[in-house]
Amino acid sequence: MLRDSALAVSLLLATVTTAAAQQPPCVFPRRDQVNARALASVTSSPDGHDYHYLLENQQPAAQALVKFAVQAFNSGGTAIIQTSPPDWEVGGRIGNSTFYVWDTFGEPRGLATGSSAMGFGFTNAAGLPGIVRFLAWNHVESPSFPRGEAPDSCEGSDIIQNSFKGTTVGPKPPPQPFVPLEFLNYLITLVHDSRQLGWIKVDGVHQSLLAKLIAAKRKLEAGDTQVAKDNVNAFLNAVRATSCQEFSCPGNKPETSEAYALLSFNGQFLWERL
């Protein structure tokens, strides 16, 4: 009798194992088959900054772009307020993440390859412009299963993982607490990052801006705050002279609107506190 019971248990386990092995895998189709580019322009607003995005689905792209999300960070407990173009809807925050999403339901749905839309944005956002991530993805049908047979999780269901990813400018709290020398080092990092990302297009401009900030740093380390402030002001004047503030750039200036947003507003923040 004991042998019969053990045999029955073994057969049951083998059946369960075989059934589990035969269960069809739950895998979401790829949702990153778009080729997104998000241009950013930032302007001052009464209580912060307004962020404007031009979204493109560039050639080549296998599918239409139907959802778009940008990282945004609360500053001082303020809410993130989104603006939306026609035929798109504000979707709010994705779960507990720092990404805020826009969706479109109009037909034909989304941005076809080679098309663009503008009007996405955040309004009156506190904090300062910083380097953030964006996501873009197409529409796919979720895997379906007979009732009671759906697995607990599916591969590729996390949209933050299963999406096209890029870099843009969005609202971030400034480094706290404010320490002039540390913030100046942060601004120097933003100059380097802007060059690496192609937002500063010319090496000579990159080196010229960097030289002004390094001069300011040396003066600040020596305790000469006024001359350091003058050097930061020279940096700001150079940024404004060589940057585009809008998406398009008359005269092919060597700094994009993203570089202007990062360097001008963060530089002004520093200058006012020296």
Overview of the molecule:
This protein is an alpha+beta fold and 274 residues long. It has two domains: 137 residues, Immunoglobulin-like, CATH 2.60.40.2230; 94 residues. It is built from five helices and nine strands; from the N terminus they run αβββββββββαααα. The strands form two sheets. The protein has a five-stranded antiparallel beta sheet. A four-stranded antiparallel beta sheet has the order 1-2-7-4. Strand 1 and strand 2 form a beta hairpin. The longest helix has 21 residues. The N and C termini lie far apart (88 Å).
Specify the number of helices. Answer: 5
Instruction: Estimate percent helicity.
Output: 25-40%
Widest beta sheet: strand line-up: 5-6-3-8-9
In whole angstroms, how far apart are the ends?
Answer: 88 Å
- Please report the total strand number as a whole number: 9
Biggest sheet features:
5 strands, antiparallel
Overall spatial form: elongated
Q: Could you spell the SSE succession in H and E letters?
A: HEEEEEEEEEHHHH
CATH topology of the largest domain: Immunoglobulin-like
Mean pLDDT, as a whole number?
Answer: 89
Structural class: alpha+beta
Name of the CATH superfamily of the largest domain: Uncharacterised protein YcnI-like PF07987, DUF1775
Taking pLDDT < 50 over at least 5 consecutive residues as the criterion, the unreliable ranges are: 1-22
Reported CATH architecture of the largest domain: Sandwich
Total individual domains:
2
- Which CATH class of the largest domain is shown? Mainly Beta
